[in-house]
Amino acid sequence: MKNKVVWIGTKESDILHTNHFFSNSITACGSGKSHNISFSVSQNRRINYNVNNPEYTQFLLKQMEMVVEKDSEVEFMYYNPYYAHLLNPVLLQHVCCLNSKSIMDMLRSKCEMRTLAAKYIPIVPYERVLGKELYNKLNLCFPNNGKKYIIQQNISSGGEGTFVISDAKETLTCSENEVYLLSPYYEKNIPINVNFIIFDEEIFIFPPSIQIIQQINGKLLFKGTDFNAEKYANYLDKEVIWQNTFRLASALKAMGYRGICGFDYIQTKSQLLFLECNPRFQASTYLLNLTLEKEGLPSIQELNYMAFNHRKAVKFDAYTLNVTYSCIAPSYQTYLKNSSIREEWFQHPSVFEILTDGLKADMHFVEDAYLYRVIFSKSITDITPEFDLISYDNLQTASEDWYKKIISGDLLALKIGLLNQGIFISKAALNFIQNYGGIKDSVFDSIDLILNNGIIINCPYKINYADFSPFFLEYFSGQLELHYYDKCLGPVSLEPNNPDKDRITRNSNVPYRRLSYSGGDRLRIHHTDICVFKRGNNCCQFCNLPVNGFDYTFEDIQEVIDFYLTKGGFRHILIGGGSESISHESDTVLKIVHYIREKNNSPIYLMCLPIQNDAELESLYHAGITEIGFNIEIWDDKIAKKLMPGKGRISRETYMNALKNARKIWKKPYSVRSLLIVGLEPAINTEEAVHMLCQEGIMPILSVFRPLPNSQMSEFLPPTNEFLYNLYKRLDKICNIYNQHLGPNCTACQNNTLSLPW
């Protein structure tokens, strides 16, 4: 291989895993050290390289001329070879791996490529429209039908020039004689990118990647890649992707095109549609190089060089490469000032590497400027039951609308953000907390944060990517503060740690924490050592309760109850946490209730499996149970059986009958409840469940799915903030119809539910 090839591209890091093929690099973003010449370092600013920048263009020309002066045999390889055609003849002759300008012009044109592609494979339908005709065309397309459309500049990249339009009044400022594409907006789709290299005699097609696209300020911008497409086998047909790519790539090959190229598709619920062609290296190429290097194979850049020099490549099955990496590539948003990187990210177990490309905190940043890339060793995306492609909110940039909700004091948005994204605790805050008794672990690997207005919110800090949360605890002048990006949201406090949780019972040496939990204004008593479904190896997949039971006696429970009744500090009592065998669960509960009632008259709330026997319900009521809940959790029976193989065998009908029977006995409003988990089934199911519960006088309680460590679903993604916000609004309206509320009715106990004080 040659060693006098210089890389001309957007990022220095693009050539990190290319087997030292390049002698030097000249890039928009880079370290400016060793063999890199960096525009961003030389100017101390980051640009949006997807938008034409004359100053950067002149910088490249000057640096390339200096390189040629020193070495007349040097070759330049471009990330985007089209721009080489804009060079003067002297520099152009030093460019390698270059297709003709006429071919490049055609492939870069979204209109021409869709016209060509339509001869071979299905495409996204479109209309070619001049800027001066766009407004009239939009008025024709928007006869108050509520549909959305995509407007694209004919030539653009990275999502720049691609806009979602939902109203003709949103017409953008357009150049009169510029060509635009007007296409229907497929809101439910999976964006796909495929890298391929055309040789003289063959075409190397690499595995497809999922593109992470985010709508920011009306634009659909590329924000990352996930190569773990195998997890989408139920939605994507890799054979169809390969065949469509091969058909169209073969047409390009016949036209004389050589080297690296990429196709973008979208997978709808029914078909794969071609979107556009990128006759250049791809943003996803870097992750392929990581895998090729690991397998001892040439990089994409080296293969590209071989293709143009009529060499035969090393024989390997490119399409079956096992690429497991994913990445995010945030861009700068002025409203967030989001240019910083936490040092804790580098130690995160799922982070393979972080590429900063010379990023410095004191740089000047333009809007949408590239910041850095975080490479993960596993998948960071998922498909929701509604067929929406999502990534972790902590790995995405908050939209300006969502950011404004948080900083303006929208309590619902704040609670959803903290519940869902969790919180990062700075070293200073952690030291302060540890000096005052340490962190009090709440349920679900979290802490309970007390806002300045007294509202308690359960914030996970051990879940996947909590270190990336834009919410963080900081410590200043003897006070804990809650921050969101660059804004301080105000002082907060934490519940003090429970010094008694590790006390041991006299009878069986059982830690108090295995039999109880004290938090908020409630004391929880566990009525079983281990959930019956854990014992039977058919537990709920989202649960991380202990698998191993422990030996205890009723005297141990009595001791714990006596201790906390004497200590006080709670308003009411909950009996529950794990399920006991349905045949004798109520007997155990009755013993506990009778014992409590001998000494205390606090309200008692029972959560257990549905009780079918009316006599048992009557006994519990008269013994002193003041509130009762049978938690359905998942409304759809099929999904329930899949995710709750033990508990899911109890039908929805059984739950509803038990709840309705309980409602006849507990007549006080809000005294009969059922909890539903949001995010594990289609939202329409949850809406139906809330309707059914409310019309029977049963209070619905919403728990947001949280991928807990050590559970079978620890790698699943939670629902997005926006999804939860909109769903809450719909469900709250349903409750209002029936004079109900999203529970519970205890403000302190709302800490880990999707609810607000009322």
Textual characterization of the structure:
Helix content is 28%, strand content 23%. The chain is built from 21 helices and 34 strands. Strands 10, 11, 12, 13, 14, 15, 16, 17 and 19 form a 9-stranded antiparallel sheet that branches. A 7-stranded mixed sheet has the order 28-29-30-31-32-33-34. The termini are far apart. This is Radical SAM protein.
How many DSSP-defined strands?
Answer: 34
Shape descriptor reads elongated
Let me know the average pLDDT.
92
Question: How much β-strand is present in the residues?
Answer: 15-25%
Which ranges are low-confidence, i.e. pLDDT below 50, for 5 or more consecutive residues?
Answer: none
Summarize the SSE layout with pairings.
Elements: E1 5-11, E2 22-29, E3 36-38, H1 39-43, E4 45-46, H2 54-70, E5 75-78, H3 89-92, H4 101-108, H5 110-117, E6 127-130, H6 134-141, E7 149-153, E8 162-165, E9 179-184, E10 190-198, E11 203-205, E12 209-216, E13 219-226, H7 238-255, E14 259-267, E15 272-278, H8 285-294, H9 300-308, E16 326-328, E17 351-355, E18 364-365, E19 373-376, E20 381-383, E21 389-391, H10 400-407, H11 411-421, E22 424-425, H12 427-435, E23 446-450, E24 456-460, E25 471-476, E26 479-484, E27 487-494, H13 512-515, E28 516-519, E29 522-525, H14 532-535, H15 554-567, E30 572-575, H16 585-597, E31 604-607, H17 614-623, E32 627-629, H18 637-643, H19 652-665, E33 672-678, H20 683-695, E34 699-704, H21 721-737
Parallel strand pairs: 1-2, 1-5, 2-3, 4-18, 22-25, 29-30, 30-31, 31-32, 32-33, 33-34
Antiparallel strand pairs: 6-9, 7-8, 7-9, 10-11, 10-12, 10-14, 12-13, 13-16, 14-15, 16-19, 17-19, 20-21, 23-24, 23-27, 25-26, 26-27, 28-29
Domain Radical SAM core: 515-745
Keywords: ATP-binding, Iron, Iron-sulfur, Metal-binding, Nucleotide-binding, S-adenosyl-L-methionine
Protein name: Radical SAM protein
